[in-house]
Amino acid sequence: MSTKSDKTSLDLKPWVQVVQVHPDVDSPNFSEDIFALDLGPLADGNKSVPAVYREPEHFFRVSYLTKGLRSLLEDVLSRLTGGTGNRILKLLTPFGGGKSHTLASLFHAARNRKALDILPEAQGFSRPANVRTAVFDGQFFDATKGKEIPGEKFRAQTMWGWIAWSLGGKKGYEIMRQQDEARVAPGADEIMALLAEGPNLILLDEVLQYLISVGGIKVHQTTLRDETMSFLHRLTGAVGNSANTALV
Fold this sequence. Notes:
single chain
């Protein structure tokens, strides 16, 4: 005897008959490496990053605003205009849970707010202008040599040196030059001075990998890992006291 549930299951069509696959996925030239998105190269403007991630309008055109992503974008964009919303957000996602895509969404929305309007449901979101962005990707920051600053003859030695340059260019870096060269975490006053000319969006990715690497680097009587932990603690406090800065 057939039950109601049996009949329902028999009426369901295979998903391939119901869903229309995006053309680039259905292409015979499709490569699965397109799913591998690294935030650091994206922020650096690396041309090897697929255009679907690199170009803001293209990125949002093929994105779907889930409830969580919509809420996050609303929160962050509101904060960047001095409105309500969380200043400090921590993303908790499993492997393959969309963390990189979420961070890329925030990156593009902050740097090119108009591109987000391609999604009708996002047109009412806040519209911050001239947002300064800093992206620290622990996979692409050498523990011993730091990271080369484009167009300069020196390298940022620490997380705070890189963030200072990313947000404020040469002027921002000078606020923390001594602390960066000495690899000693800046005080909260210096961080507040850096954030004063916001709005600022700071995105941190793969920090744990970086902390593991810098654990063996001695800085006076401590390590670069301890100094970085001190910086992160002071950074969250400074962001919490900033009117238009968000840290994710």
